[in-house]
């Protein structure tokens, strides 16, 4: 899926529902892209050589996520996304392309497939659906939609509604007449029994004022001046269009242009040209576009305004005969063939056409319109080969003189050849710029993640998210009924005369100890508040409420003591103390803001640490009661004088709960 579709969704969801809702939708769908590249089907992964595609299911998933967030129906969001795309592509000038297709909305509906065909040159990997009008009247039209993707029929409805309103100034009502294989919310059609995907087919009835279009239609009846023209032999038509096909009502080939016969012979060097005239068209040609329809008289006659692409099928390869004694000139042979000739006579004449046998030729793709000729009750395919440059011309076994003498076929091949290298260079530059943009975006995401990590190291994630949403920092102040606050102070018994050397040793010691403590902090069980000098401060129960705060802090204290012992630093120990009670917490400061704790509980916890002993954990009597109920091993220390509190009973925490046998 191209990024433009997702860009349109992102822009208008942010515009109408806000940034917060859009971020929630991305989080719900698991989409990690914050920016989508307009002309890319894929976004490059900076850390891998493998591309990551924009998945087709992302739009239905976003619609489902937004439906869950806002409470609005899923179908309403799919229609909204379709409208968003039309509004968005107007910024690229594609609205002018649509308006140029015709004066009326019905002209556009006739030309949808042609527009998709032309857009393939800009969006080379586009997998466009196929749409054809099957009925047209003064009150509207019937449109048949075919696609291999499911779940996008509502998306198309939104596009049609917005195009009619914005570009043609009319209101349209749309209802579904028939639907096959369209699974709501899906993105790939059901699997057919013979393999591959079943085609999604949806028939819409579009009701709108179509009277003016019907009144101005031309060629419904022949003008009297046209009836006075003398008949023209079909040989003249085949001379003008050397790749033309004429088909009768049974979809059998009755006449073929000179160059098309030669091309058929080049691609079927082991088969007789007698097989071509009078054969079913599907035996030798494959309908490429419009996709999803069968090659029948009724379908083709109904789609005379649609561009067709037909591929010449290749037969078994074999070396052609080099005996030229029995060969006559192609033009001479064809001059004997017209639509009045019998099928058998035409086939006999064609067998005399010379072969320019070649192997490994590229398949020829013919592009043009199917026109109904009432006088001979036949369909004529007025076409020319689809060739971009001289290299493709050579690969098809053709020459410039083989192309239509009128029109711009030859000029386009020359133009394609002269501009091919320049266009190729431009494409390479654009691809390089796209890769550079993707790399820049990936770096921006990486820098954002690093910035987030730095921010979360200063203030809690939950508080940071609230500040991002625009909450005033003063509103982050919050009271907690009960938490457990811990202080741990690193102790050093070895000193030296060299103050600078001693300071460096202290820094290394503190870095090793505090880094080990950081590894033990796991949110939401505990949160590191700050380090001041040799003191490490942590809390459990804030900013995330935790009913097991005393238990988690006891486990953290025991792990801290064990980690210091495992570091095996000479002369280094740790004093730890903690206490439980109420606090008030909030963000303090604008530059280097910090999450700070206030209250008597903080002071008491600090006294538990300062009045303790090295490599011991001292807890208050209140906290000890909680831990004893949980089975932790504690021993009574006695009463300790605490500044501002008097004598307090304290305990030593000696181990975790004893395991029951």
UniProtKB/TrEMBL annotation:
<dbReference type="InterPro" id="IPR024096">
    <property type="entry name" value="NO_sig/Golgi_transp_ligand-bd"/>
</dbReference>
<dbReference type="GO" id="GO:0005525">
    <property type="term" value="F:GTP binding"/>
</dbReference>
<dbReference type="InterPro" id="IPR038158">
    <property type="entry name" value="H-NOX_domain_sf"/>
</dbReference>
<feature type="domain" description="Guanylate cyclase">
    <location>
        <begin position="484"/>
        <end position="609"/>
    </location>
</feature>
<keyword id="KW-0456">Lyase</keyword>
<dbReference type="GO" id="GO:0020037">
    <property type="term" value="F:heme binding"/>
</dbReference>
<dbReference type="InterPro" id="IPR011645">
    <property type="entry name" value="HNOB_dom_associated"/>
</dbReference>
<keyword id="KW-0141">cGMP biosynthesis</keyword>
<dbReference type="InterPro" id="IPR042463">
    <property type="entry name" value="HNOB_dom_associated_sf"/>
</dbReference>
<dbReference type="GO" id="GO:0004383">
    <property type="term" value="F:guanylate cyclase activity"/>
</dbReference>
<dbReference type="InterPro" id="IPR018297">
    <property type="entry name" value="A/G_cyclase_CS"/>
</dbReference>
<dbReference type="GO" id="GO:0019934">
    <property type="term" value="P:cGMP-mediated signaling"/>
</dbReference>
<dbReference type="InterPro" id="IPR001054">
    <property type="entry name" value="A/G_cyclase"/>
</dbReference>
<comment type="similarity">
    <text>Belongs to the adenylyl cyclase class-4/guanylyl cyclase family.</text>
</comment>
<dbReference type="Pfam" id="PF00211">
    <property type="entry name" value="Guanylate_cyc"/>
</dbReference>
<dbReference type="InterPro" id="IPR011644">
    <property type="entry name" value="Heme_NO-bd"/>
</dbReference>
<dbReference type="Pfam" id="PF07701">
    <property type="entry name" value="HNOBA"/>
</dbReference>
<dbReference type="InterPro" id="IPR029787">
    <property type="entry name" value="Nucleotide_cyclase"/>
</dbReference>
<protein>
    <recommendedName>
        <fullName>guanylate cyclase</fullName>
        <ecNumber>4.6.1.2</ecNumber>
    </recommendedName>
</protein>
<dbReference type="GO" id="GO:0070482">
    <property type="term" value="P:response to oxygen levels"/>
</dbReference>
<dbReference type="Pfam" id="PF07700">
    <property type="entry name" value="HNOB"/>
</dbReference>
<keyword id="KW-0963">Cytoplasm</keyword>
<keyword id="KW-0547">Nucleotide-binding</keyword>
<keyword id="KW-0342">GTP-binding</keyword>
<dbReference type="GO" id="GO:0008074">
    <property type="term" value="C:guanylate cyclase complex, soluble"/>
</dbReference>
């Amino acid at each position: 899926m191209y990024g433009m579709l997702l860009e349109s969704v992102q822009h208008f969801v942010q515009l109408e529902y806000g940034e917060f809702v859009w971020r929630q939708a991305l989080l719900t769908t698991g989409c990690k892209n914050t920016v989508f590249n307009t002309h890319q089907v894929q976004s490059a992964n900076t850390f891998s050589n493998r591309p990551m595609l924009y998945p087709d299911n992302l739009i239905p998933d976003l619609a489902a996520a937004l439906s869950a967030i806002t409470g609005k129906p899923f179908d309403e969001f799919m229609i909204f996304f379709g409208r968003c795309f039309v509004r968005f592509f107007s910024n690229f000038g594609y609205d002018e392309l649509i308006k140029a297709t015709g004066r009326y909305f019905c002209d556009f509906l006739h030309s949808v497939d042609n527009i998709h065909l032309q857009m393939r040159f800009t969006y080379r990997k586009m997998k466009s659906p196929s749409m054809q009008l099957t009925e047209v009247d003064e009150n509207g039209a019937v449109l048949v939609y075919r696609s291999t993707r499911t779940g996008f029929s509502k998306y198309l409805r939104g596009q049609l509604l917005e195009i009619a309103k914005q570009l043609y100034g009319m209101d349209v009502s749309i209802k579904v007449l028939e639907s096959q294989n369209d699974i709501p919310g899906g993105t790939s059609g059901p699997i057919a029994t013979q393999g591959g995907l079943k085609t999604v087919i949806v028939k819409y009835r579009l009701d709108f004022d179509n009277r003016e279009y019907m009144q101005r239609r031309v060629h419904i009846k022949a003008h009297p001046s046209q009836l006075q023209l003398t008949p023209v032999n079909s040989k003249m038509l085949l001379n003008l269009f050397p790749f033309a096909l004429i088909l009768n009502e049974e979809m059998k080939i009755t006449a073929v242009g000179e160059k098309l016969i030669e091309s058929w012979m080049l691609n079927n060097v082991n088969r007789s040209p007698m097989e071509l005239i009078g054969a079913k068209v599907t035996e030798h040609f494959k309908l490429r576009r419009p996709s999803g329809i069968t090659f029948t008289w009724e379908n083709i006659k109904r789609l005379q305004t649609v561009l067709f692409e037909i591929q010449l099928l290749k037969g078994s390869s074999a070396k052609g005969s080099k005996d030229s004694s029995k060969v006559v000139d192609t033009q001479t042979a064809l001059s004997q063939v017209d639509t009045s000739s019998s099928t058998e006579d035409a086939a006999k004449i064609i067998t005399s056409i010379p072969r320019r046998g070649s192997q490994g030729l590229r398949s020829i793709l013919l592009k043009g319109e199917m026109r109904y000729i009432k006088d001979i009750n036949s369909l004529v395919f007025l076409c020319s080969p689809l060739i971009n440059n001289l290299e493709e011309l050579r690969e098809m076994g053709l020459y410039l003189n083989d192309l239509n003498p009128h029109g711009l076929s030859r000029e386009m091949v020359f133009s394609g050849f002269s501009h091919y290298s320049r266009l190729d260079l431009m494409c390479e530059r654009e691809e390089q710029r796209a890769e550079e943009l993707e790399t820049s975006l990936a770096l921006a995401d990486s820098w954002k993640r690093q910035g987030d990590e730095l921010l979360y190291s200063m203030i809690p994630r939950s508080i940071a998210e609230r500040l991002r949403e625009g909450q005033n920092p003063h509103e982050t102040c919050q009271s907690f009924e009960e938490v457990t606050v811990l202080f741990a102070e690193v102790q050093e018994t070895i000193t030296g005369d060299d103050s600078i050397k001693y300071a460096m040793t202290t820094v290394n010691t503190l870095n090793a100890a505090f880094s080990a403590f950081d590894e033990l902090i796991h949110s939401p069980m505990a949160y590191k508040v700050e380090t001041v000098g040799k003191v490490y401060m942590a809390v459990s129960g804030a900013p995330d409420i935790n009913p097991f705060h005393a238990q988690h802090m006891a486990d953290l204290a025991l792990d801290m003591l064990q980690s210091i012992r495992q570091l095996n630093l000479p002369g280094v120990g740790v004093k730890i103390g903690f206490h439980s009670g109420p606090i008030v917490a909030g963000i303090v400061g604008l530059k280097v803001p910090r999450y700070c704790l206030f209250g008597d509980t903080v002071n008491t916890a600090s006294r538990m640490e300062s009045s303790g002993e090295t490599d011991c954990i001292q807890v208050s009597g209140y906290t000890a009661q909680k831990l004893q109920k949980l089975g932790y091993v504690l021993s009574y220390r006695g009463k300790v004088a605490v500044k501002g509190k008097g004598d307090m009973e304290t305990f030593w925490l000696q181990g975790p709960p004893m395991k029951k046998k």
